[in-house]
Design a protein that fits this description.
The chain is α+β, with helices and mostly antiparallel strands and about 100 residues long. Helices cover about 40% and strands about 10% of the residues. It has a two-stranded antiparallel sheet with strand order 1-2.
């Protein structure tokens, strides 16, 4: 999915995919090499576990929004906005 959706195709190699697999009830965050070098896997895992806990409570929208906000904060910390800061990937969820 990471490759198929072109998440790897950003200038700073900072794309992040939040992958929610409903059938197996699994959540995974896949980070491109530029951001993966800077963020320990445990930090991504923490975001996934928080999202899973929210989903188990039936808080699907809140869990997803909180996870997106957490990933946004991580990205902003390591790749702060520049004067020209194009959005290189769509923000809309891809439902497959």
């Amino acid at each position: 999915m990471f490759s198929q959706l072109g998440v790897w195709d950003t200038e700073g190699n900072s794309g992040v995919l939040i992958y929610v697999q409903l059938v197996d009830r699994r959540i995974e965050i896949v980070a491109d090499r530029g951001i993966a070098r800077r963020v320990p896997q445990a930090e991504w895992d923490h975001v996934c576990r928080a999202m899973e806990h929210a989903f188990k409570r039936g808080s699907y929208e809140a869990g997803a929004v909180e996870a997106i906000a957490a990933v946004t904060e991580i990205l902003a910390r390591h790749f702060p906005a520049r004067e020209t800061n194009p959005n290189e990937l769509p923000d809309k969820p891809a439902v497959l």
